[in-house]
Design goal:
Length: 286
């Protein structure tokens, strides 16, 4: 158990600097060993939370990193800090503000990343939106559309665009959730998208195997990221993660190594269509 999280909220998409406590996302005690030397990675939703931790871990392993993020708050912010932390590892950092609900935005981000980095070898689909409800009937057509456009359509469009640049030995890593594995009564549309991401992963792994492209998925349990205080009420935030067997939410730096594993051909060359689920001790039937 950890100390209770203070009740708090902030405007969507949220900022790490306004969270109490701040998430551990800077991979400060992580030691790279060249697992991704020469890799060119694009991460969606990469400015904060899991995306930031993955970007820094990749950089410490030798990868250049482009990342897309939704900017609805102050200029710079989390994205500027993430870029600085990647550059401090001696790697290229390319932050790109974009609303990836649009196919055109996904295509533009992919093309810019490939041009600036000199190619692409890893794609991490990580961007997400959620809006909890008390009753199923509260989910509007507008919310359903936004949740699917952000969480599923962006993964589809970014992957389709990236295939022009990804070759034999490349890796695609999708972010699902424990909610896609067992559902969530207050995140019904969100859980549905996360289940769709699992099926997309399984299907793409089969489709892209002949090209030598591995497709895998990370499905975390509760993780302390800006999405939580930006989409949940203060009381829910204060209790976030308490239901996990470990009694707490994960920090992003506890989840990021799963992405390193899937990105590294040396570590996971025989893995495709697989799911890693860092869920704090929860076990699932089946």
């Amino acid at each position: 158990m950890t100390d209770p999280t203070p009740p708090q909220t902030q405007p969507y998409p949220g900022s790490e600097s306004r969270m109490e406590p701040e998430p551990r996302s800077r991979m400060e005690d992580y030691q790279g060993s060249g697992k991704l030397e020469g890799a060119k990675a694009l991460i969606t939703g990469g400015d904060s939370g899991i995306g930031r931790a993955v970007a820094i871990a990749f950089a410490k392993e030798g990868a250049d990193v482009a990342f897309a993020y939704l900017s609805e708050t102050e200029e710079g912010g989390d994205a500027a800090e993430t870029a600085a932390l990647v550059r401090a590892c001696g790697r290229i950092a390319l932050p790109m503000a974009a609303d990836l609900r649009r196919q055109e935005a996904c295509e533009e981000v992919v093309e810019k990343a490939a041009a600036e980095l000199g190619g692409l070898s890893v794609l991490v689909n990580n961007v997400a939106f959620q809006n909890p409800v008390d009753e199923f009937e509260e989910i509007t057509a507008e919310q359903l559309t936004r949740t699917f456009e952000t969480n599923v359509y962006s993964y589809f469009w970014a992957t389709k665009a990236a295939l022009t640049h990804l070759g034999d030995g490349a890796a695609i890593i999708n972010t699902s959730s424990i909610n896609g594995l067992r559902g969530n009564k207050s995140l019904i549309d969100y859980a549905a998208t996360k289940g769709a991401i699992l099926a997309l992963t399984y299907s793409l792994a089969q489709s892209l195997e002949p090209r030598g492209i591995r497709v895998n998925c990370v499905a975390p349990g509760p993780v302390w990221t800006p999405l939580i205080p930006a989409t949940m009420d203060a009381d829910a935030v204060a209790q976030f993660g308490e239901h996990a067997p470990m009694g707490r939410a994960a920090h992003p730096d506890e989840v990021a190594p799963s992405y390193v594993f899937f990105a590294s051909g040396r570590m996971s060359s025989y893995y495709s269509g697989e799911v890693l689920a860092p869920v704090g001790g929860e076990t699932l039937p089946g």
